[in-house]
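Technical appendix A lists one of the benchmark inputs used to test multi-chain prediction within the project. The record comprises two sequence entries:
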Amino acid sequence: MTVLASSSSSSPLQFWGYFMDHRSEDLGWLWDHTWLSVLPVVIGLLIALPLGWLARRYRWVYPPMMSITGLLYTIPSIALFVLIPPIFGLGALDPKQVPIALTIYSVALLVRVVADGLASVSDETIQAATAIGYKPVGRLFRVELPIAVPVITAGLRVALVANVSIVAVAGTIGMSNLGQLFTQGFQQSTPDAYYPPIVLGIVLCVLLALVLDLSVQALNRLLTPWRRAVRT
Amino acid sequence: MIRFDSVTKRYPDGTVAVDELDLTAPSGKITVLVGPSGCGKTTSLRMINRMIEPTSGTIWLDDEDTAKIATHELRRKIGYVIQHAGLFPHRTIVDNIATVPYLLGWDKKKARSRSLELMERVGLPPHFAKRYPAQLSGGQQQRVGVARALAADPPVMLMDEPFSAVDPVVRDQLQAEFLRLQEEIGKTIVFVTHDIDEAIKLGDQVAVLRVGGHLAQLATPAELLTRPVDAFVAGFVGRDRGYRALGFSSAGTISTHQEQTAALGAPTPYGAENGPWILVVDEKQIPQGWLDLDGVKPGENVITDGMLYRGGTLATQGGTLRAALDAALSSPSGRGVVVDDAGALLGSITASEVLALIEGREREPQP
């Protein structure tokens, strides 16, 4: 550390020192970043489940639903953050606008995932479940969704990691999250480049994405013991 | 009993899958629906548990109109077995089998003990209970499928080509076990297959359907072989009908010739009474195969497995004329080997003696 400190205080590798100096502020941003990434995926999944089921149940719904959700995903995030307050009747910088935007993205991504997950259940299994006397709702929750878990969790991983990156963009319009570190980095980069907060932001975002990704993988393993069962 | 009363299935595009079908599947018997693709056999089967709704007509389950029973309740009273078994990949074997008991609200302990009992019944070792379907072979999965269908002891079972997707050896085994199981449980079974041999082997009665959902003939397997009603049924039943019909005629108690034997592991003998072939048996008198004495040096080497000709089939005393004739025809010595129920040697019979039995049996009057 002494070697690094003596070389230059603006060295990118100084991010650890920067973190220790601004610990409480940075941890607050990390916490905000975490729930802003996770909560929209949870809400998004709850909304995507019935929509995905519809797209699977009524095949004609699938193509238009995928087109619409696909288009939603192409709206640049910064534009969506700005558009949401007038549409939902919020103030210009309401803390709800970021989770709302991210929920929209998550739904857009997860509708297809849920529909494809349900499609991954074999016809024989569905036929057997029906013939055995499952009613449609029981069949969905006891047979189809449990079997769709691996496909759905794969989609959740993508959605979470994407959210970690999009949340940071919201930092640049003043929201409390790790994106603030990038704003700080830019502001302190006059006249000379000052990297530590920027590198710290990147490192914390990557670590957060990694932890969330591993959590979903662990959840998947917990829910699908049958996937690890191999022929003996 | 299941009764089809002028049941028709017409699809919106005008295709008629089943046309005015009248058919009764009697209680405790196996009724096989057989026919080429497009004959409506699977459609007919699925109309029984209302996976497909008939366009017109009534299907009676004993004296109840199936259209008046809530579908999920109807289905829980009817066991269902399909090709590839359709097991739930995310549930262990014991839980797969207990599915219907769980749905019916049995307590977990009772459902599981019922499930384990059924595993034994269909020939699955108890340590399979905690495995998942992906860990089982196709034949084992199909056993689980049968056990699952039987779990709540439904009076009726529907089986849709259950043994089509397994290899021929396993299929024979599953068919034989299925017949033995049915002897114990006596369910009312409707069984769909495209394989006429399977229909003849398993059916108490066989319904041959022709394309368009018409019933061509409903008869016992023996009748179907000896008296097909028309050219379609005759063609569908296929070749070798006379020979296959022998499979339904008992050979009675066959009087056999004593057969000279040699023991496996003993020195090769110096010659046999009847030509170069001698029957080799093990210490329990179970026939192992034929030894050609022209091909070995007498007295020098011991008889080993590798020296035996094993192409001959065995006839069991009390079995069919078909098995007796086949034993004689397949034996290199021309002498068919007859064994008792335990598989031990009784003696031999020649093809001409079997033919005499065939000639001498009471002929069914031909129409």
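The mean pLDDT of chain B is 90. Chain B touches chain A through 31 residues (CB under 8 Å). Comparable benchmark entries are summarised in Table A2.
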